[in-house]
Amino acid sequence: MLAFKKFNLAELPELSAAKYDSRPALSMVVGSVYTYRDFERLSRGIAQALASNGIKKGDRVALLAENSPQWVIAWFGIVRAGAIVVPILNDFMPKQIANIIQHSGAKIVFASNKLKAKLVEISPEPEIWDVSKDFEPSADSVELPAVEADDLAMIVYTSGTTGISKGVMLSHRNILSNAIACKSIITLRRTDRLLSILPLAHTYEFTIGMVIPLLYGAHIFYLDRPPSASALLPALKAVRPTIMLSVPLVIEKVYQSGIAPELNGMKLYKNKLMRPLILRIAGMKLKKTFGGHLRFFGIGGAPLAAEVEEFLKKAHFPYAIGYGLTETAPLIAGCAPKATFLRSTGPVLKGVELRIANPKTSTGEGEIQARGPNIFKGYWKDEARTKEAFTEDGWFCTGDLGSIDNKGRLFVRGRLKTLILGASGENIYPEEIESILNQMPEVEESLVVEEEDGLTALVCLKSEVLDNIGARLQDHLDAVGDLGSRVGQAIAQAEKSVTGSVNQALTDTEKAIERLLENLRKEANSRLAAFSRIQRVKLHPEPFEKTPTQKIKRFLYGKAKEKANQAQSSC
Prior knowledge:
Oligomer: single chain
Largest sheet: 8 strands, mixed
Strand content: 15-25%
Structural class: alpha/beta
Distance between the termini: 55 Å
Number of strands: 25
Strand order of the largest sheet: 2-1-10-9-11-12-13-14
C-alpha cells in the first residue's frame, strides 16, 4: 500500500505512479488501458489546466459523467488543483443538477457528451469541460497549491430518500482513513481485477471500489452501459473479476430468477442429507457465473434479503456485508467473507467508535451513533441540519436503529424515521416486512405504510403475473366477442349478454387479484410477530418512485405524504 506524507488524496497519483509504474490502473471492459503513469500524467494535466484557468484552492468543480477512467482522472486532477469535487449522480433530473451546481457554487463542470444535455436549466450557464478529453501536462511550470489532510476533498449531494438533497462535506482525511481502515475486511493485491458496476458519485463505490484498489496497484474495469444481464455477463467473462461491489438488488435478482426456482425444482434438494452438497455446488456455479475468480463480493447500500443471505452463506459464496452512510465516507462496520454472520454487518472498523443511544432494555436496540476520523465535516451551507446531525458531545446520529451483540457485531434493524410504533409500543420495522414480501415469487417490490387502522403493504406485482391475469381476461373478452357474433340477429339481447359477460370478466379478474393479494398477506403474516402483521395488501399499479441509487422515496407514500401535504398547505 502507498505511504502518504501529508495524508491527502492529491498525493495518490504521484505515489502510485512511483510504486506501480506501468501496471494497468484503469480501463473500460473493452477499450484502451491507462497505466498508473498515465493516471498521474493526465491528472496532473487537468490540475494545471484548472490552475491556469483561475481555479484556486477551495473552489468547487462539478463532475457529471458515466463511470470511466476519465471520471477517475478528472476527480484526482481537480483535487490536485486544490479544488473541491462535486460529483453528481447521473440519474438526477436537470432541475436537481441545476440546484446542486448553483448551491455548491461550482465554477466549472466536467461533463460527458451524453450528460451535457442535462445542464440546460442552469442560469447563468457554467463553464463546461469535456471529461473525455485527455489533458496533457503543460511544458511550462504551473504552481499547484499545497493540500492538507483536513481540506475538503468533495461535496456529495445525497439522493434524497427524505425528499431533500444535502451536500455532505468530506475531507481528504475522512476518505483516506476509511479506505485504510478497510484492511480489516480486505487487503488487495496488484493482481486483483475489480469490475465496477455502481455509480462512482456514490461514496460506497468511490471509496471501496476506487480509492482502495488504487492504493494497492489493482486494475479497475468500467462498463460502458448500465449493468443489465446482457451487458454484465460478457463483461464478467472478459474481466474475470476477483473483486466486485454490489447492491442487494443485483444478487437478489440472480437468486430469485435463476437459483431459487432451480433448487426448488430438484427432488434431491428436499433431502436434508443432500441439501448441503447441492448448495455447495450451486455456490460454485454462481461463482462461475461471475467469472470464476471472485474472492470478494461486497454487498451494501441496503439490507440483504434474509433468504438470499442464508443461501450465500451455505453455498460458501465469498460475500461480505458492510454498513455505512455518505456522511461516514462511507463504512462504519463490515467484515471479510470468512467472518460473515447472518443478519449482521460485522464489527465496527478500526479507528471508528460506535455506540447505541438510549437502548431499549428488552432488545438493546437504539439509534446507532458514530465518531471517528471518517465522520464528515457537516452539510454544505446548512448549519441548522449540521447541528441536528450531531449530539452535544460530538457523536454523529446515523438515523438508523440497531444493536451490538456481546461479540461486538452490529445488527441494523431499520431507519429511525421509518420506524412504526405498535399499539403496545413495539418497534415495527417496515423494511423487514418488505423483505419477506419481496421474496415471494409474485412480488416485484413492496412498501409498508401505516394507515389509520393498521399496516398496509403496497405491492407491485411482477410483469409475468400481470400478463397471466391479463391473458385470462383477454380469453373472457374473446369469448364475449364470439357470443356477440352468434347473436347478431337479436341486437338488444346481444348487447345485454355482451355487457353482462364483460362485467363478469372484469369482476372475475378483480377477484383473482384480490385472492392473490390476500394470499400474500396471509403468507407474510405467518412469518411475522403478531404486533407487526399486515392488515391489508393493496396493488400498486406502477413502480415506486426512487432515488438515483434505487431506494424508494418513502416520503411520497402513506402518512409521510399526508404530513408533507399538510405542512405544505399550512405554509
